[in-house]
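I'd like us to work through together how a protein chain folds, taking it slowly. To get us started, please write out a protein record for me. Label the sequence line and the structure token line clearly, so we can match residues to local backbone shapes. Once you have written the record down, we can walk along the chain together.
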Amino acid sequence: MKKKIKVFYDGKCNICNKEINFYSKIDKKNKFEWINIHEDKTKIKKTGITKGDLLSVLHIQEQDGNFVKGVEAFRVLWGQFKYFKVLSFLLNYKYINNFANFIYKIWLKKR
């Protein structure tokens, strides 16, 4: 059985929940394991990352065990969905990636 990509998300954030619910519905190939940071303490402990750090930005653990976070986590996530692959591809460009990071940091402060 192929390992799933683990997505650690803030289940107490309404916007985060809506977004994760959307992605989980379009995850027809069941590539992801959706982990609510507030509900799955055992899996959180296994990461070696504090709950506070996991809550600070979106974290993804790839199939090889490596962690990516923030905009890079979205790049990995979007790369798995047909209609979002173009967004993932665009994040490979330095200026677009820098701009996305800037916007993401602003959003994080307001959420």
The beta strands are 5-9, 32-36, 59-61, 67-69.
